[in-house]
């Protein structure tokens, strides 16, 4: 089904992984999709957002959570062994994931070894993502923007939608314009831009940026949110989003939830616009 890839040519921090985590979690809770969230980075940031290290966590999430079916060969390392032995199939990928919500959201962690091994592991991601898209309703990819090579391009080319991150800097806007006119984004119709770490007090607000980029009335964005970022650090993201479903309209965190919903709606609309069925 659909492959949704978070990516940017921007070298500055825009909270890309946080955005992918927020969108995947919110989409799982409010839409009836079976989702795989994949990290292509050499870190454990995705796992850290959903689980506390070496701690038995109880809470709202526990009634939805399945059994972690992973072992020493879990994650991308385990899948790499299956791929190298010719045993990689769409339905086998779930054997190497961690479950956040049973039959709804699974995580494929990034590699956490040395850089040389990571460069080799990175080469199998296009095959993994392609196979996963045949098993899950949606594969959400957090694509390492620091590796710009043929493997990155393969992942981008196979993506149904690319969620392209920018920030509130003139240089970032010019980079987007150049990419649209003569760079990677030229001629592509599957781009959904968004602003990361959004500051509502900047003169580069969503409406002004959209007007400057000539992409409509406004552009999606995600503000820096202390509660969400603490949850990412403490392994409680799933609990947080379940709690946010009950917040009142005047709650100070409702804006963050609405921002996430807005980006999710834009992704779903773009997929439907491109006639991809979900």
Give an account of the 3D structure:
With 278 residues, the chain is α/β, with parallel strands linked by helices. It has one domain: P-loop containing nucleotide triphosphate hydrolases (Rossmann fold), CATH 3.40.50. Helices cover 41% and strands 15% of the residues. The protein has an eight-stranded mixed sheet with strand order 3-4-2-5-1-6-7-8, with helices on both faces. α7 links the parallel β6 (161-166) and β7 (191-198). The longest helix is centred in the C-terminal third of the chain and has 20 residues, at 254-273.
Entry keywords:
278 residues; 8-stranded mixed beta sheet; single chain
Number of domains: 1
Q: How would you sum up the major sheet? A: 8 strands, mixed
CATH homologous superfamily label: P-loop containing nucleotide triphosphate hydrolases
Distance between the termini: 7 Å
* Beta-strand residue percentage: 15-25%
Approximate shape: globular
| Order of neighbouring strands in the sheet with most strands | 3-4-2-5-1-6-7-8
Please outline the helices and strands.
Elements: E1 2-7, H1 16-30, E2 35-39, H2 45-50, H3 75-84, E3 98-101, E4 105-108, H4 115-122, H5 125-132, E5 138-142, H6 150-158, E6 161-166, H7 170-182, E7 191-198, H8 206-213, E8 220-223, H9 226-234, H10 237-244, H11 254-273
Helix pairs in contact: 1-10, 1-11, 5-6
Briefly characterize the structure.
Helix content is 41%, strand content 15%. The chain has 11 helices and 8 strands.
């Amino acid at each position: 089904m659909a492959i949704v890839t978070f990516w940017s040519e921007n070298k500055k921090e825009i909270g890309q992984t946080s955005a992918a985590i927020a969108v995947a979690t919110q989409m799982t809770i409010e839409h009836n999709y079976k989702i795989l969230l994949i990290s292509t980075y050499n870190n454990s940031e995705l796992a850290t957002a959903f689980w506390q290290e070496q701690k038995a966590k109880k809470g709202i999430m526990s009634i939805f959570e399945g059994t972690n079916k992973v072992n020493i060969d879990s994650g991308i390392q385990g899948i790499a062994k299956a791929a190298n032995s010719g045993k990689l199939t769409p339905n086998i990928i779930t054997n190497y994931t961690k479950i956040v919500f049973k039959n709804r959201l699974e995580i494929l962690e990034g590699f956490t070894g040395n850089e040389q091994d990571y460069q080799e592991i990175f080469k199998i991601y296009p095959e993994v993502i392609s196979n996963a898209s045949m098993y899950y309703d949606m594969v959400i990819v957090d694509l390492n923007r620091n590796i710009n090579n043929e493997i990155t391009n393969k992942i981008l080319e196979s993506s149904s939608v690319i969620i392209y991150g920018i920030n509130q800097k003139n240089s970032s806007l010019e980079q987007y314009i150049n990419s649209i006119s003569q760079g990677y984004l030229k001629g592509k119709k599957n781009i959904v831009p968004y602003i990361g770490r959004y500051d509502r007090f900047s003169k580069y607000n969503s409406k002004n940026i959209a007007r400057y980029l000539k992409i409509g009335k406004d552009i999606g964005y995600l503000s820096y949110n202390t509660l969400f970022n603490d949850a990412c650090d403490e392994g409680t993201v799933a609990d947080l989003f379940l709690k946010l479903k009950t917040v009142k309209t005047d709650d100070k965190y409702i804006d963050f939830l609405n921002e996430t919903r807005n980006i999710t709606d834009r992704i779903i609309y773009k997929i439907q616009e491109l006639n991809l069925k979900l």
